[in-house]
């Protein structure tokens, strides 16, 4: 590696340094995935795709390309720990316009996820208090969802330490309930008290033999996105006690802990409920949208303990939605802050609160735009809201593909310097990029089918339309800000083909 001319030094963003350890970063990464809700809302559909007991295999195998992409995030962060993450690294690799659009895609997926999680917290707050009828009232759930969103924005605004402590509590409740559910379910299976539908777990559930190609593709499209969110641990890198290394390690650890958690819950649910089409069977379409809610009464019974655990299952999904919302606001605000700090957005978005040392303008701007979008989608149609959530898959595939390719390109001249560099900066990220590029194409084809989602537009599936339109809106926005951000788009703020390290530009 050879040193070149020093790059323009971007002023410190004003975020609180040394505020987070690796454990807190890991908690943020795991919380962002909404473990309880993700597996509850996805497992039934994976089984319905035709996988049967092999659903566990696809939960496991989908983790592998995610881990490869996590390596890319870790390597790029070690070279340049900027809270803009994808935006910054894509700009380094492919230039200002690709970098700006990458930042936009990340913001789009976070906006769409916020709509989903606000709807979730609104509904489950009412279910928690036994108000099942009101939980189906769109106006009431929307109002409560908005209240949650504003409260979580306030938490993120008040400081990173406050946000991290809240994440510890929310994730702790969530994982504890999932662990109790899994242990009780498996104990009843092995003791023979689970019922005639139960099946003893087998090792071959973890290998996808005997599954058709079409079924495998459908299962992978469903399973791979339950891991999204772990990269939030890297968005708080500038607030970490070890910015270059701790966030990357936290990202890897998050993915490993997630796959272990998902496998435990998946095997427990499959073993206890079976894959039948009736009753509590996981192939029963009536249970697909939330398999844990359908299994709670059967696993825990109707005794006092059972009733308490039934409530705690609802609490776990509620805390899952709240934790994910909070952990989505933080990276969204920091991505926008970074874009402004590097001159890719107007300076006003680069303001940081002098006392709390959080992105003040971008936190509230993202929260209010999320609130407006959520209300618009909720009032427009519940079906449109559902399709907007599924459209997130397209943006995630783009984000992971671009970031993994950026890693390969930025480090291309050092790939052959060691076996480690070849594997962790080259081969594995490239395989991850190819995988998610294939997922992008397959998902776009699948979502474009008229019967793929809840809505259609001129014969095209609403999921594909929402996803593509949301991404394309970024192009006129980019051209609109280009005049005010000439230095960035001319490549004078973030130099292409280099990574910043200790104030110096180091050629890749």
UniProtKB/TrEMBL annotation:
Keyword Transferase: no
Keywords, sorted A to Z: Cell membrane, Membrane, Transmembrane, Transmembrane helix
InterPro entries: AA/rel_permease1 (IPR002293), APC_superfamily (IPR050367)
Chief subcellular location: membrane
Spans through the membrane: 27-48, 55-73, 139-157, 169-190, 210-230, 251-275, 295-318, 361-380, 392-411, 423-448, 460-481
Domain of life where this protein originates: Bacteria
Keyword Hydrolase annotated: no
Membrane topology, as annotated: Multi-pass membrane protein
Stretch forming the signal peptide: none
Subcellular localization, as worded in the UniProt entry: Cell membrane
PANTHER family: AMINO ACID PERMEASE (PTHR42770:SF16), AMINO ACID TRANSPORTER-RELATED (PTHR42770)
Protein name as catalogued: APC family permease
Lineage of source species: Bacteria, Bacillati, Actinomycetota, Actinomycetes, Pseudonocardiales
């Amino acid at each position: 590696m050879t040193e070149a001319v020093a790059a323009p030094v971007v002023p410190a963003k004003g975020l609180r340094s040394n505020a987070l350890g690796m454990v807190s970063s890991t908690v943020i990464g795991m919380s962002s995935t909404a473990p309880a809700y993700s597996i509850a809302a996805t497992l039934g559909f994976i089984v319905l795709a035709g996988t049967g007991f092999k659903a566990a295999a696809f939960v496991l195998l989908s983790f592998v390309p995610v881990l490869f992409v996590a390596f890319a995030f870790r390597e790029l962060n070690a070279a340049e720990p900027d809270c803009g993450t994808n935006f910054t690294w894509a700009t380094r690799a492919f230039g200002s316009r690709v970098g700006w659009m990458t930042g936009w895609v990340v913001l789009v997926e976070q906006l769409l996820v916020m709509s989903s999680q606000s709807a979730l917290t609104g509904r489950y707050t009412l279910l928690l208090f036994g108000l099942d009828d009101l939980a189906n009232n769109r106006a009431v759930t929307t109002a409560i969802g908005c209240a949650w969103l504003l409260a979580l924005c306030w938490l993120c605004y008040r400081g990173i330490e406050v946000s991290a402590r809240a994440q510890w509590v929310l994730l702790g409740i969530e994982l504890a309930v999932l662990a109790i559910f899994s242990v009780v379910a498996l104990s009843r299976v092995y003791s023979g008290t689970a019922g005639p539908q139960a099946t003893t777990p087998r090792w071959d559930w973890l290998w996808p033999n005997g599954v058709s190609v079409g079924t495998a593709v459908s299962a992978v499209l469903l399973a791979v996105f339950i891991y999204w969110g772990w990269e939030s641990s890297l968005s708080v890198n500038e607030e970490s006690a070890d910015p270059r290394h701790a966030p990357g390690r936290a990202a890897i650890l998050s993915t490993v802990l997630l796959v272990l958690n998902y496998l435990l819950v998946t095997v427990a649910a499959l073993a206890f409920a079976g894959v039948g089409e009736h009753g509590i069977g996981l192939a029963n379409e009536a249970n697909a949208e939330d398999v844990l809610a359908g299994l709670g009464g059967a696993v825990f019974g109707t005794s006092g303990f059972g009733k308490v655990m039934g409530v705690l299952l609802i609490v776990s999904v509620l805390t899952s939605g709240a934790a994910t919302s909070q952990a989505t606001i933080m990276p969204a605000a920091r991505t926008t802050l970074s874009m402004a700090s590097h001159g890719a957005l107007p300076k006003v978005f680069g303001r940081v609160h002098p006392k709390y040392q959080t992105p003040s303008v971008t936190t509230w701007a993202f929260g209010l735009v999320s609130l407006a979008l959520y209300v618009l989608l909720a009032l427009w149609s519940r079906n449109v809201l559902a399709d907007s959530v599924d459209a997130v898959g397209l943006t995630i595939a783009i984000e992971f593909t671009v970031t993994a390719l950026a890693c390969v390109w930025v480090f291309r001249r050092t790939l052959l310097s060691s076996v480690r560099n070849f594997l962790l900066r080259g081969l594995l990220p490239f395989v991850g990029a190819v995988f998610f590029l294939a997922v992008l194409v397959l998902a776009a084809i699948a979502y474009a089918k008229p019967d793929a989602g809840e809505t259609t537009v001129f014969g095209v599936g609403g999921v594909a339309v929402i996803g593509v339109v949301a991404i394309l809106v970024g192009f006129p926005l980019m051209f609109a800000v280009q005049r005010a951000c000439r230095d960035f788009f001319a490549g004078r703020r973030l130099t292409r083909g280099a990574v910043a390290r200790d104030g110096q530009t180091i050629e890749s």
